[in-house]
Amino acid sequence: MYFAQTVVSLAAAALVAFSPTAQAFTTACLYQEYKCGYSMVADYGYNNTELIAAVNKTSIIPPLSTIQLLQVLYRCEDAVGGIAGNSYCIAGCVDMRGRPEDDQCAL
Asked: Which domain of life is it from (predicted)?
């Protein structure tokens, strides 16, 4: 059941992320929160340009394809929506929706 919800969430996030009408984020993420790329797109409205800029701030993350941007764990840097790429989740990014923990990279 959880797997099916994750697949649907990823599909929805990908659709929004690659939509030519996608705008800049609609709601700033919470300061010091860690969120998966697909959550940043689906929950807050961040777009590819913002995700790429966040990844480019972090020298330890190599250049990524647009699909891979959704599997990055992003850190919310401030209260006005600034983000930075924290790490690329090779095994996938896990959305901890509904729990008090931040999103995490799968191990």
From this structure: Eukaryota
Q: How far apart are CA 44 and CA 67, in angstroms?
A: 18
* Inter-residue contact 13 to 80 (CB < 8 Å): no
What are the Cα distances from residue 18, in Å, to 13, 60, 78, 92?
Answer: 9, 25, 26, 19
* Segment (H or E) for 80: none
Domain that holds residue 37: 2-105
* pLDDT one-digit tens code per residue, 55-67: 999 888 888 999 9
Q: How many helices (H) and strands (E) does the chain have?
A: 3, 5
- The tokens for 8 are 């649907």
Tokens (6 digits) for 25: 């984020």
DSSP 97: T
pLDDT in tens, 19-55: 443 447 888 888 999 999 999 999 999 999 999 999 9
pTM of the model: 0.75
How big is the chain, counted in residues? 107
